[in-house]
Amino acid sequence: MNKTLRFMAVPTLALGALALSGAPAMAHDGDHSYQATLGQLNGSSASGTVAVHVTGNQAHVSLNVSGLAETFMDAPYPHVQHIHVGAKGQCPAPAADANGDGVISTTEGAPSYGKIGTTLSTSGDTSPAAGLDLKLAGQGGAYTIDRTFELNAETKEALHNGTAVVVVHGLDPATLSAAGQAAKSDLVPSLPLAATSPALCGTLVAGQMAMPVGGADTGVKQTPQNNDAGVLALGGGLVLAAAAGGTYIVRRRKAA
Q1: Which pLDDT belongs to residue 213?
Q2: How far apart are CA 125 and CA 30, in angstroms?
Q3: Contacts of 137 (CB under 8 A, 6+ apart)
Q4: SS3 for 159?
Q5: DSSP SS3 for 157
Q6: In angstroms, what CA-CA distances link 91 with 14, 36, 194, 199?
Q7: What DSSP string runs through 193-207?
Q8: pLDDT tens string 42-88
Q9: Quick check: 17 and 238 in contact, CB under 8 A?
Q10: 3-state SS class at 141
């Protein structure tokens, strides 16, 4: 079997619940800090922390995660993450699994955390469209994103209102139920459900560390990695796929 990591380009889909709207938002001047502890979703056993400091329209984000699915076809697993906005400002509870397959899919979680407001990319563009670029994704089972960028008005408003939620995507299929392993992505049926489903989630709260659904260990091992994975075009969604006969292989980080 070809061991080279490959990604399929998927046609852009209109996904209204997750697409960024162009509605204007109120400005909030001054310095503000927001934090969240990222708790596991879908049995990922991962953990993380994120802090956002806003000065005017500038945001400094520091995100640390560990315990995520580590490799994909013998290369670092690319994990995309975003600040989601425009919904309840919550991480989904188990009841969000509407179809009972044991997995909260991206769209099943959307009523709780909303659409993409800002992409927490490793470099470059932080727009919602950048969330599709795996070259800007976090790589491997543990990594850090630490950067400053201009914050868009809608995300700034969500932070001010307490409805901004950080979600990290990408699961190890082996950790899912039998039904979850057999299921196809709710975004692109040709892909496995694990490829697009959320693994970590936390609501950003002003001036304090917020505990999300599922809880989390705040200890983080930082092992940033890079690869040359290509861009996936999937409107509002996040997809990775192997081109080796439809086989999906993910290894998780072994416990120390």
Answers
A1: 43
A2: 24
A3: 78, 79, 80, 81, 121, 122, 229
A4: helix
A5: helix
A6: 23, 11, 18, 11
A7: GGGTSEEEEEE-EET
A8: 999 999 999 999 999 999 999 999 999 998 778 899 899 999 999 99
A9: no
A10: coil
